[in-house]
Amino acid sequence: MTENIISTISAVWSFFNDYLLIFSLLICGLFYFILLRGIQITHLKHAFTLLWNKNIAYTDDKVNITPVQSFLTGLAARIGMGNIAGVAAAISAGGPGAVFWMWVAAFLGMGSAFVENTLAQIYKTKTETGEFKGGPAFYITYGLRSKIGGLIFSLVLAFTYGFAFISLQTNQISESLNYAFDMPKWVIGLLLVFLTGIIIFSNLKTIANVSGVLIPIMSSLYILMALVLIVIHFTELPKVFYTIVTSAFNTDSALGATIGLAINFGVKRGLFSNEAGMGSSPNIAAAANVKHPVSQGFVQMIGIFFDTIIICSLTAFIVLMSGVYGTPAAEGLEAASLAQASVEAFMGKVGAELLVFIIFLFAFTSVLGYYTYGSVGIYYITGNKWVAHLYRLVVLGFTFWGAYKSPQLVWNTADVFMAIMCFINVVACLLLWRPLFTVYKDYREQRKRGIEIPVFDVHKYPSLAKTLPDPDIWSAERHRMQAQQEQANQNN
What we know:
This protein has one domain (35-454): Amino acid/polyamine transporter I. Helices cover 76% and strands 1% of the residues. It has helices at 2-35, 39-42, 44-51, 67-78, 81-94, 97-122, 136-143, 147-181, 185-200, 204-232, 237-248, 259-274, 282-285, 293-321, 336-347, 349-381, 385-404, 408-431, 433-448, 462-465, 476-491, and strands spanning 125-126, 132-133. Strands 1-2 form a two-stranded antiparallel sheet. The protein is globular.
């Protein structure tokens, strides 16, 4: 009886994680690639110009965050162990071809990211303190008129990010520091609890500011290290590209991982890294005070490009150029250990220690981003501040527990909840194609008329306005009042 139950649970887990997750992501990506006419190609340049354009938001807002802060906080959650350990794990399990399918998933995922983050802006609401809140739970509740669906998503979000994913990230920090410097894990756990507690018991602006400082440092450091190694060994690049592409369509298991494994691990590890379509980044994207929902969708789309196309690719090149993968020296190495061995092959022990420092920054900023996502789920369930404080304490408990010990059960559970959360979000994004296209068309038509910074007035679309929790957020009157306030502040 027990064996049958375990077998059934395993079958359900495999179905969600290996089939439903992958196909739902690819179908959503292809659908919006066609509907929006390849937006990740035709509007990529425009998206980059918006990233640092202060005019797309109201700059006098003292409560909410800016689009750039929203982008960096979302990037804090994206850029983590998935960019190093995730890529190495994909290659270890799915072969070099997994990198190709990681690129494909990221390319399509850029469109999915645009959609989910735009929807988060459309269906956001405002708290008593003036903060904007939104995300999949809100557009499921109001756009699809399903309170139960929103509640289920919020619970899955709070558990997946606030507990399971945070414990996994702190475990990676603990393992790396323990291996490199022989630090006791309980000491590392207490240190992480102290650092995390100071930040999460503050506010979203503090998290955004910390992310804004750490992300440029860690990203620049890792990119610089990777580029130096790649430039020194640039003659190996053509061979690496050839290996990646040919392995992506390999059908002979005798030659390594087959195409099925390459697609499976390429898409899954790519998702773990960039989170496109998972429904995570919309929770922070909704907090940006922008003038048009679509502009925030474009800004968040760049995060997928930066995370996977750039940083994940650098890791893949290092692993495949090092000469470690595919040799007896790589036996028993996977995920972070394979990445560390690859860097060590180039730079020796100094390189391995430098990578430990980078891993710490990557994983710690992910912890902050994960908490932010999870807290939005708790806010949707209840706005009670004491429940929010209790959630923070539980998060700190998992921060220590993950650093001290993280069993395989936690990883498997996180995988299941990640797949469920992603599936719910993808279905919602597909069903909400009409309001998404309406808002996108409004933005595009304003741009065609020569308006550099479009402003959205939902009251031009009465049927859409009726479904929004707070349509006045997108009213022409509100835009006019905020513009007057900004002008008055500038004059003073």
